Predict the 3D structure of the following.
Amino acid sequence: MTNPPKILKTERLRLRKAKLSDAEAIFRQYANDPEVTKYVSWRAHRNLEETREYMRMCALAWDIGKAFHWVIETQDSKQVIGMMIARVNAEKWELGFVLARAFWGRGYMTEAVNALIAWALKQKEIYRVWAVCDIDNKASARVMEKVGMQREGTLHRWSLHPNLSPEPRDSYCYAITK
Ligand SMILES: CC(C)(COP(=O)(O)OP(=O)(O)OC[C@H]1O[C@@H](n2cnc3c(N)ncnc32)[C@H](O)[C@@H]1OP(=O)(O)O)[C@@H](O)C(=O)NCCC(=O)NCCS
């Protein structure tokens, strides 16, 4: 099983293994923001307890090696501003990412995704890093293009984005391989 880094530093950011006590910051920063959660696969959190429950699931998933969740902090303020997720399926890692709205448009997620891909593709057992995004999620698609992922196609009716529609939506599939 791949042993993921508990901390991954970039020029301006620090990705750190998520912990239960991050729930307050995540709830305050973005978990119930309708703009941030528009295209995500989970329902916007209605209260802090829902974020805590999510953090418990993250801890469990890390322990069993199913998925790794890092909070994204700025190096200077150590403030939690987002999250990076890697879901593991043997030699394929699927990424997910989210950032509080106040920090959009500064290249932060491009920096974070770049760092994670660089780390992942250095691991002997990881050959493919991929992600999907709603076909209308322009910012997410752009991040993936900027980090060198290739758009492999459209996955019809692929993912449920419950804050947007009760029906599964079309998604673009992006990947980078070695
Ligand atoms: C997707 C997300 C993580 C991007 O984070 P970010 O730090 O703002 O991303 P960056 O600043 O690194 O890059 C964003 C790019 O998208 C572009 N962009 C943003 N909104 C856009 C829009 N509506 N149309 C076209 N391009 C857009 C930006 O201009 C920038 O590209 P550029 O550098 O070529 O100008 C952030 O918007 C977010 O958290 N969204 C909500 C959660 C989400 O959708 N996550 C992804 C689920 S698949």
